[in-house]
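[audit] Reproducing an earlier prediction to check determinism. Same input, same settings, fresh worker. If the tokens differ from the archived copy the diff job will pick it up downstream; this log only records the rerun itself.
[audit] input (120 residues):
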Amino acid sequence: MKTLEIKQVIVIRTDLKMGKGKMVAQGCHASISAFLNAKKKNSAWADKWIRQGQKKIVLKVGSEEELIAIYKEALKQDLPCDLINDAGLTQLSPGTTTALGIGPAPANFIDSVTGDLKLL
């Protein structure tokens, strides 16, 4: 019997031209926030993800509209997710939407929402 693959996807906006460190920080915010959401929503998925090595895939989008559309589809699919808005302390204006974390959840569920996106 095949083991159910659990993963997390982080989606980053590239149109903001964030520095590499800023992108990493925003991705980390998305990862942790989505994980905490998953822990409440489906602790079995979150626990299995930890045991499987915490697989993460980082993808990119070119606009806020595209990021919001993916977020809405993830919510519609009842996936644990969280949208990240920057505090505005460094490179961006306060409230700028920068990233999205989806999962941990079964890979095939996440792929149905993010499967057409390109790697960062």
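[audit] rerun output stored. Observation attached for the diff report: The two ends are 33 Å apart (CA to CA).
[audit] end
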